[in-house]
Amino acid sequence: MVQVQAATTGELLRELVRLHPQLQAPIDAGVSVAVNGRIIAAGLSEPIPEGAEVYLMQRLRGG
Amino acid sequence: MALDDRKSHFTFVGTRPNRPDGLDKVTGRARFGADVTAPGMLFGAILRSPHAHARIVRIDTSKAEAHRDVKAVVTRADFADVPFKPGLEGEFWNVLENVMAGEKALYDGHAVAAVAASSALAARDALKLIEVEYEVLPHVTDVDKAMAPDAPVIREGAADYSVPEGMHPNVVRYHESGHGDVEAGFAEADLVIEDHFVTEATHQGYIEPHACLASLGADGKGELWCCTQGHWIVQKTCAALLGIETAQLRVTASEIGGGFGGKTTVFIEPVALALSRKANRPVKIVMSRSEVLRATGPTASASMDVKIGMKKDGTITAAQGVFRLQGGAFPGAPGDMTAMCAFAPYNLTNVRQVGYDVMSNRPKQAAYRAPGAPMGAFAVESVIDELCKILGLDPIEVRLKNAAREGTKASYGPTYDRIGLVETLEAAKDHPHYSAPLKPGQGRGIACGFWFNHGGETSVSLALSEDGSAQLMVGTPDIGGSRASMALMAAEVLGIPYENIRVTIADTATLGYNDVSHGSRVTYASGLATIKAAQHAVEKLCERAAAKWGIPVDAVKWENGCAVPSGPNAGDFDPLPLAEITADMGRTGGPISGHFEATPEGAGVSFGTHIVDAEVDPETGKTSITRYTVIQDAGKAIHPAYVEGQFQGGAAQGIGWALNEEYIYGEDGRLQNPVFLDYRIPVASDLPMIDTVIVEVPNPGHPFGVRGVGETGIVPPLAAIANAVSNAAGVRMRQLPMSPPRILAALKGNG
């Protein structure tokens, strides 16, 4: 569990890398962000509401 | 994305009109990858490595080049000599290395050179004139052996940040996730089962082999016709590999004879373009079936260990899985997806999953419907079935007891939104199939499956004609009936008949970037964009009506295909049909079109439950599937017949994967069965009628509630069939395919 201030998925990823540089590699490799259970595959402009559950996952791929 | 236009009552959506491509396909008018020609066209052929792993010491193409029928020969040097765009690395580099070998041939069938000649026969003959000197290297094709300390290294430095120190260089990605304390959970269990499972690689088995016609001039301008699941990724990748500007290459997707994930990348297209550039003539390449099997992406093979603890009442106390997937000689095996999907149907307090992506000397794996998920479900659902059997519990009741629902913390991390697993299990429990008596020698199996689904970049345009018909341009090749479902969704918004809408798969010069038709995304994402594009056109139609009536546009609404005053205060005007507005559009402001582009991010995950009856012949080991029922949450079925077709297709391909299909490699690392006679996909006589039940738990992320349906249907079959066969044979089957020799060996081993 880590804490950052961010209003969008893009801000979240930028803040995470700023505070935890070791996350640069996994984020560069591709992550999806789940906000309140909704999986955001790649979008950086998706809003993160106050108090939302945020979860980082390896980026999803499909067939 | 705000969805304030959610709809639950429909006029066109949910009906079953004729497919728009039906007549073309039955009359032969449909043009597939190999169906086009061009003036002055040459024929390309590709020379492939006979070795699983070999250093390419020397390639002498001089004799081939001297042949009078040969107009061009290319090797890797013809790609490397061009000034690449900066940044040809990562997956682009992997794709280049796969379409034309560099220093080493990495698998049996790896392309090493190609020729373009005046006939297909001449091209094939000319390949024999190319001399390649190989230094054969040790090879490995098995996932467990590829991870062992003494395994030959396929490529140093291919591993990414995620791989723990001390692992073999062939392990290139690592995934670990979960929550709770699995050891404490196992201690609480009344019964713990840990078992090992193996699945072989299978091919997507599309009926149409890869085919393309390419033309590329010295000016860097090109045209490409090909069968693909996504022509923008073809455009982007080919441009990168050939060092040309993306926008200068126009790619048109042909009609497609199946893809299932396997046509989401390129194989022959950059080669045809390189040959064309060198010969200054159009070049056509059509793969043989043998080339398709040897050198295009099969799925990964897997070696898996699953451990699950259960109480006597059926409560799962802990679950743990280790999933090792080999994906050929390149990174990309979806071990992470296997791990994340494996336990997703269940509400687990303690869960841990580990996935490995391992390289071996096999062709580069490509996506295949829900990539990675079917293997994991096979292992997990087999262990759950065994636990139920030993504890004397009903397999559906146990799954219901542990089922994930809205608010459950998923095994892969986040909390589920509204999902429909329980509804599929309830429907399975109530289905007559589940209570039907079995004959002697038959067994029944149950399994659940999960897939994420996907949104992706999407751009759609709609243009109205003066007679009130509409043309819809989408960028996602139609691999499962999407032209019909797009037309239904547009009809629903516009209020004009389905038949009045023609849907075209636009080429790369006509629309902005569209992601590939994969991830079960098309009906969701292109559908959402179609709805929004149609709404955009409706706004303009309302503006024209408002202008005609001389009232504010917000006093006009759209109803049943007509502009009408929004209320009694707006004025008294007769409804104005769409065709009356478009008849005048040239004089009332010009053409009326609608457009929408976005990356929708609300695909909504999906679950299914399958019931299978199998009969095993103890004399021959042959398995017959005697009854099969697919129950899956579609969110909202736009064209139910196509949804049922997706369910049936997933089950049919799952039957092949479970019972017969496998890549068989010899000790020499060569594929032993690169033809359909020896690589046995199911035929009609292998299949029962596959019954379907469409469950509709609307996806909150789509205006009409759509969830993708293309992939989830292949997740439960391996497990459900294995459970049915194990119950019929009286012995647990832990390895796929359950071909007759394996069944006989298992029966013999069981005494």
Summary keywords:
heterodimer, A: alpha+beta, 2 helices, 27% helix, B: alpha+beta, Aldehyde Oxidoreductase, domain 4, Aldehyde Oxidoreductase, domain 3, seven-stranded mixed β-sheet, five-stranded mixed β-sheet, globular, Xanthine dehydrogenase, molybdenum binding subunit apoprotein (chain B)
Structure description:
The complex is a heterodimer of chains A (63) and B (751). Chain A has 63 residues and is of the alpha+beta class. Chain A has 2 helices and 3 strands. In chain A, strands 2-1-3 form a 3-stranded antiparallel beta sheet. In chain A, β1 and β2 (38-40) form a beta hairpin. Chain A is globular. Chain B contains 21 helices and 26 strands. In chain B, the strands form 6 sheets. Chain B has a 7-stranded mixed beta sheet, with helices on both faces. Chain B is globular and about 85 Å long. Classes of the chains: A alpha+beta (63), B alpha+beta (751). At the A-B interface, α2, β2 and β3 of A face α11 of B.
